[in-house]
Write a structure and sequence with these properties.
The complex is a heterodimer. By secondary structure, chain A is an alpha+beta fold. Chain A has five domains: 1-56 and 490-633, no CATH class; 59-238, no CATH class; 243-465, no CATH class; 635-746 and 949-1082, no CATH class; 753-948, no CATH class. Helix content of chain A is 46%, strand content 19%. In chain A, the strands form four sheets. Chain A has a six-stranded mixed beta barrel with strand order 2-3-7-4-6-5. Chain A has a six-stranded mixed beta barrel with strand order 11-12-16-13-15-14, surrounded by four helices. A six-stranded mixed beta sheet of chain A has the order 26-21-20-27-19-28. In chain A, helix 30 packs parallel to helix 33. The two termini of chain A are 35 Å apart. Chain B is of the alpha/beta class. Chain B has a single domain, classed as 3-Layer(aba) Sandwich (Rossmann fold). Chain B is 35% helix and 15% strand. Chain B has seven helices and six strands. In chain B, strands 2-3-4-1-5-6 form a six-stranded mixed beta sheet, sandwiched between helices. In chain B, a hairpin with a 2-residue loop joins strand 5 and strand 6 (198-203). The two termini of chain B are 24 Å apart. The chains are: A alpha+beta, B alpha/beta. The interface between A and B is medium-sized, with 25 and 32 residues.
């Protein structure tokens, strides 16, 4: 006989008793490991989606404008590349009338060859849809569709000369046959877990229609070289035309003109060109040409005249190498035509009126005064009609009366003399001012030069300019899209962690049950313990034997749990795809069982179960032989229990109070306060059970039975306490979760609609002119707040991917002062910014950091930041900027984006024109009419309250998940209570038989057992619910909500009824035991 | 419960302790076997006072020097007859002759042919004889029997009592038997009775 044999014998003999403990360990391990597998499966699914949708793509080069498609051939042999055009737009399916916003990919055969996909590009006039889009539109091959998108334009729309109306382009296609994801039909460059809505059209067709032959705006690349090497190659092969820049020789002059197809040179590029000229010793003449609506002097006016701003030297040369006469004001040279028209001589005051396009989307007039410093003949430099850039609708017209500019002109002002000038001199400037004056008056965020003239060419000029213009500092962006997307697939929400939290109670309940059943098993073997002690086993040796048994049980349980874990994880993944899809927004999740996680989970489950075993044996050494042989008499509770019970109660009450007055965060108040209150409740229950002596009554009736039931509940205080420990926390959890539900409500800020357009809307729809131009007359009065949008990754809980490049909104200045929406917190120090944290967006921050506002949910659960933290925001073609999170909105409409002041937005992203996000005050019923009127812009208006509900649905789904698992935990707790009850009944069989022999009938004994259960259940439910009510008070108060009493009462009633049903079964078990047999031996 | 108990035993002594239920017979045996501690007084077995030892030393003391036989035998149901007897050999000093001695003891008590049987397959008397063999496997100096025949019928009780007496003579073990049976007590040379906590000699 040796220890291993003793162990095996004991395990086999007590197998049934150990089975329950083993099951407890198995459940705990299965749930714990399953949670880990869930997290890993979600991450794996997100990665798989990225890899499927990116195909072979590792890097993307995207242009602010269009570059040579042939650039794709410049990267071999290290990289393969495919050019395409990527646009955002909308699709209308003609047969069904359904519409959707889509990504448009104009591709050729090279796209499919790049991905090594066995597919052919869309045929002539054909479009192909992604499968999800086809299903959504109910589209099939042969159907007609209209694609609408913003027509690309080189001239910035918010530049005076940029087109602001009728900016959409519509193309009609016939659908090809359905294509599968294997044929890259689900291609997407931005990671998202939802369905892909993509349309593939022929590249050459789009190029032709947009007059962009041989051009593309995106390159896909794949290869073995690093991103740095790729960037170096791009810089090497880059040409000026790839950035929309060109060097043009002027015939007959030898001059080389450096200009942009956007008609404006940004300051950095212009200064680089000037530096290049200086380096090569070439004289360079920078200029800015602008249209003056009126040049007036001496009571006369000349309408619609071009004015050129040039440097001093050029001005002097125009003035026949004479420096302009000194003037008090800003000097202006007029050509002889203008001087004659206006009767101007040197020294006369000359006034110019001109249009400026404001950031608000309104046309303003500006005025500047000059002093005539000379009159020049129209010859030489002064006769340069080529100085003005090409403005479609203006410079390409043969007469002034045929002008079609993107701003209003009064044709009645044009005289025959003016037309004559146009016929003779066309775009020759009528006036010349100093460059710095012109830049000051007419410079914009897009630039303050229209061209630079080099007096002669040089073989090194173009190479030097190409080198000076860094393609990756503006015109183009290189993104390691695969690496970034795979990093983003780590997810903003760690589902493994979340499900561990959600399942925490189930795990704890299972472990408690395991320890309880193990302990019950040990207690059953008191005779064995007495014998071992009598034959000379030390307490330590006995404990080791039992611990070894427990360890074997725990190991078998943990292994079983590891085997069951994939099933549990599959169930959760299935839930996330179906019942809980509100939390994920996708059906595209699948289970992947990582063996390493199974092992880790099994080991963790084993460790946790071992702790439970250790706990079950913890006080065993204090048992005397009498205690081992008989019932456990109560021990005097330690003094520290009393003080701890008081301390936890006081602290537990203090936490919610502190949360109510916002002295601690509401979440901390809830969790901290709730936990302390529960601990206090259990400690007090423990003390009551051990100390309180319920006096019995000798008067027959239910009261006597009730007192006897209470006495019996304290017979085994440890068991009763375990039952309470299983039920009270579960009741606490379920009650408090119910209180956090969003049953409607939320802060819409008073706005009825939240709208977004695919194409930017430049004009202000709240002005008369804007409403007319946008076809909004006839609609009820609406108030618009318009936001600039930099598209990016959704920062709400709706996005499972980690946002690497967040969506950004520019908030207009006027809105900052309206103090709309509630804030959860801010870094504001002054009374003003505390009252209205929006004002913090205008504050100056140290180190050039930009202040930003974000919704509290995004801050905590997606960005994982706190107020005052900084985040880095990448920018296309520029250095990243740092944003400082200065305030957090509470339950707002802005959960998908980060907000900065519009002033900062236009400075950081000067190329982004117009507004694409709108908050609208007015009747919600106007949504349909607005969408119809603004359909060329892909306008989508959503009820603001419904948008909020979409966000809350995520939260509520998580709460439902938590509740479902909490309910499972409560079920385990009730099973535990049932086990304790049945065990007590069996152990007390002799006692109960004695009661029957003494005259208690079966009914009375049944009531006794039921009352015992009712006492424990009621205490547990009441204790847990009261603790929850106190803990959630701050959160409810801050939302102005009340505790959902009816729902909680229904939940408690259900649990109570279930527990009573179990106790009724126990009562029946007892009542069937033969009386005499039970009494034998007494 | 016990007052003024003075008792001295020599090797081979056999003493029956009688008294009504609750008089302290089991308490006396538990004190003698260092399973319970007296409020005053001491116990010495071959010069060793077990109550001056630490708990592990006490356990070793019991393992080495004391054998217990309980009223309800306390056989472990999951072990065979032979394994039950060898339980004391699982702790304390290694005894290579232990297993052989266990078999011999079972032969002595007439159960040599039931080595691999489980307790559930034995009669009450047979179980008690296994318990006696277990109590003797370490050659204890003192054998304490608490109502060893209390649950047995008369003839089986006589059998068990006979075994005890033979063991005392052959192994020269000090034997203390608590019993309320006069017939059983008569088989032992010395006989005391506990009355109101005091030990009164009836014979020897």
């Amino acid at each position: 006989m040796n220890t291993p044999r003793y162990l095996l014998r004991s395990l086999a003999w007590h197998g049934k008793a150990h089975l329950a403990a083993g099951l407890g360990a198995a459940v705990a391990t299965a749930v714990l490991t399953g949670a880990l597998l869930t997290g890993s499966s979600v991450r794996r699914s997100l990665r798989t989606l990225v890899e499927q949708r990116l195909g072979a793509t590792e890097y993307v080069v995207s242009g602010r404008g269009f570059f040579r498609a042939a650039l794709a051939r410049e990267f071999s042999p290290e990289w393969r590349a495919a050019p395409l055009v990527v646009l955002e737009g909308s699709i209308a399916h003609e047969p069904s009338g359904r519409r959707a916003n889509v990504e448009i990919y104009a591709v050729d055969a090279g796209f499919y060859a790049f991905h090594r996909a066995d597919a052919v590009p869309p045929g002539v006039g054909r479009a192909l849809l992604s499968p999800a889009l086809a299903a959504e539109l109910d589209a099939k091959g042969g159907d007609a569709v209209l694609l609408r998108f913003e027509e690309p334009t080189a001239i910035p729309r918010e530049f005076l000369y940029g087109r602001k109306e009728d900016t959409a382009r519509t193309l009609r296609f016939t659908l090809g046959e359905a294509v599968s994801p294997a044929a890259m039909a689900d291609f997407a460059l931005r990671p998202r877990q939802g369905d892909v809505r993509a349309v593939f059209i022929p590249l050459d067709r789009l190029q032709r229609d947009l007059k962009l032959t041989g051009r593309a705006n995106t390159l896909l690349l794949s290869g073995s070289g690093s991103a740095a090497a790729l960037a170096a190659r791009l810089r090497q092969r880059f040409k000026l035309e790839d950035a929309g820049l060109r060097l043009r020789s002027r015939p007959g002059t030898g001059e080389i003109v450096f200009e942009s197809e956007s008609s404006i040179l940004d300051d950095r590029t212009a200064e680089a060109a000037l530096a290049a000229g200086k380096r090569l010793g070439i004289l360079a003449r920078p200029s800015l040409v602008y249209l003056a609506n009126t040049i007036a002097a001496n009571g006369r006016r000349a309408p619609y005249s071009l004015v050129a701003a040039v440097d001093e030297r050029t001005l002097a040369e125009i003035n026949s190498d004479r420096a302009p006469a000194p003037t008090k004001g800003a000097p202006v040279l007029l050509n002889e035509w203008a001087a004659a028209e206006l009767g101007v001589k040197p020294g006369d005051r000359v006034t110019m009126d001109y249009f400026l396009w404001s950031a608000n989307g309104e046309l303003h007039s500006g005025k500047a005064d000059f002093e005539a410093s000379g009159v020049v003949p129209i010859r030489g430099l002064a006769a340069d009609r080529d100085l003005a850039p090409e403005y479609p609708g203006i410079t390409d017209k043969t007469s002034l009366s045929k002008w079609d500019p993107p701003f209003p002109i009064d044709l009645k002002r044009i005289s025959p003399r003016d037309e004559q000038y146009w016929q003779l001199f066309r775009t020759t400037p009528k006036a010349w001012v100093l460059l710095e004056t012109g830049r000051r008056l007419w410079g914009s965020r897009f630039g303050s030069y229209t061209s630079i003239r080099f007096t002669h060419g040089h073989p090194q000029l173009e190479p030097l300019l190409s080198d000076a213009v860094d393609p990756l500092s503006g015109p183009m962006t290189l993104i390691s899209v695969r690496r970034q997307s795979l990093d983003a697939a780590q997810g903003s929400t760690d589902f493994g962690e979340y499900f561990l939290y959600f399942s925490f109670f189930v795990i704890a309940a299972a472990l408690l049950l395991m320890a309880l059943f193990f302990r019950l098993g040990i207690e059953q073997r008191h005779d064995e313990a007495a014998l071992l002690r009598a034959v000379g086993f030390t307490t330590a040796e006995m404990k080791r034997l039992l611990a070894a048994e427990g360890l074997v049980v725990a190991t078998l349980g943990a292994l079983s749990g590891a085997v069951l874990a994939p099933l549990y994880a599959w169930l959760i993944i299935h839930g996330l795809r179906t019942w809980w899809s509100g939390a994920t927004g996708t059906r595209l999740l699948s289970l992947s069982a990582d063996p390493a996680l199974l092992v880790a989970g099994a080991l963790t489950g084993l460790a946790a179960a071992s702790v439970g075993i250790w706990q079950a044996l913890a006080h065993w050494d204090a048992w005397s032989p009498r205690e081992l042989a008989g019932t456990a008499s109560g021990r005097t509770p330690a003094r520290w229990l009393w003080s701890t019970a008081w301390a936890t109660l006081l602290l537990g009450l203090a936490m919610p109070a502190l949360g109510l007055f916002h002295l601690v965060p509401a979440q901390g108040a809830f969790f901290g306060g709730g936990l302390l209150l529960l601990v206090s409740f259990l400690l007090r229950a423990s003390l009551w059970l051990r100390r309180h002596f319920v006096g019995l009554e000798a008067i027959p009736g239910n009261r006597a039975l009730a007192r006897l039931a209470l006495r019996n509940a304290s017979w085994r205080p440890g068991r009763t306490l375990v039952s309470l420990a299983l039920i009270a926390p579960a009741a606490f959890l379920l009650s408090s979760l119910e209180a956090f539900r969003h049953d409607g409500g939320g802060e819409t800020g008073g706005f009825a609609l939240y709208a977004e357009s695919q194409s930017p809307i430049i004009l202000d729809p709240s002005t008369k002119a804007g409403a007319e131009a946008l076809n909004l007359q006839g609609l009820p009065p609406l108030r618009w707040v318009r936001f600039r949008l930099r598209p990016g990754d959704d920062v709400s809980c709706l996005n499972l991917y980690q946002p690497r490049n967040p969506r950004l909104l520019g908030v207009p200045e006027q809105f900052l002062r309206e103090s709309r929406f509630r804030f959860a917190g801010s870094t504001g120090q002054s009374a003003e910014t505390r009252k209205n944290p929006w004002l913090l967006l205008e504050s100056q921050q140290n180190g050039g950091v930009i202040p930003a506002i974000v919704d509290q949910n995004s801050l905590v659960y997606v960005l994982h930041k706190r107020l005052g933290d900084e985040i880095e925001l990448p920018r296309e073609g520029a250095d990243p900027v740092r944003l400082k999170l200065v305030a957090a909105l509470e339950g707002s409409l802005f959960q998908s984006e980060i907000l900065i002041a519009e002033k900062n937005f236009t400075r950081l992203f000067p190329q982004i024109a117009g507004r694409r996000v709108f908050l609208i005050e007015g009747p919600a019923g106007a949504a349909g009419a607005l969408e119809e009127a603004l359909s060329p812009y892909g306008f989508d208006a959503q009820d603001a309250a419904e948008r909020l509900r979409g966000y809350f649905r995520v939260e509520d789904t998580y709460l439902s998940t938590f509740q479902a698992l909490g309910s499972f935990g409560l079920l385990l707790g009730t099973v535990g209570l049932a086990a304790v009850l049945l065990r007590n009944t069996l152990e007390r069989r002799r006692e109960l038989a004695l009661l029957r022999a003494a005259g208690f009938n079966r009914d009375a004994l049944g009531r006794l057992i039921v009352l015992e259960t009712a006492a424990v259940l009621a205490a547990g439910l009441l204790g847990g619910t009261v603790c929850a009510a106190i803990a959630v008070a701050p959160a409810l108060a801050s939302r102005g909500a009340l505790l959902p009493v009816l729902k909680l009462a229904a939940l408690a009633a259900f649990i109570f009824i279930f527990g009573m049903a179990v106790s009724w079964l126990a009562a029946r078990v007892e009542s069937r035991a033969p009386l005499a047999q039970a009494l034998r031996g007494e | 419960m016990l007052r003024g108990v003075d008792l001295t035993l020599k090797k081979g002594d056999g003493i029956a302790v009688m008294g009504p239920s609750g008089c302290g017979k089991s308490t006396l045996l538990q004190i003698l076997g260092a399973l319970d501690r007296p409020t005053s007084g001491d116990v010495t077995l071959e010069g060793v006072d077990p109550f001056t030892l630490t708990e592990p030393e006490q356990a070793r003391f019991r393992n080495r020097s004391v054998g217990f036989v309980f009223q309800d035998h306390c056989l472990l149901p999951q072990l065979t007859v032979a394994e039950n007897v060898m339980v004391p050999l699982m702790v304390g000093e290694e005894d290579t002759m232990g297993p052989e001695r266990a078999r011999k003891l079972l032969d002595e008590v007439g159960l040599g042919a039931r080595l691999n049987h489980r307790p559930a397959e034995l009669s009450g008397g047979e179980k008690q004889r296994v318990a006696i063999a277990r109590a003797l496997v370490r050659n204890p100096k003192l054998l304490l029997c608490d109502e060893p025949t209390g649950n047995l019928d008369r003839s089986t009780a006589e059998q068990v009592a006979g075994v005890l007496e033979r063991v005392r003579r052959e192994h020269q073990t000090m034997l203390v038997v608590a019993t309320h049976s006069v017939e059983i007590a008569a088989r032992f040379p010395r006989h005391v009775e506990l009355v109101d906590g005091l030990l009164e000699w009836r014979r020897g």
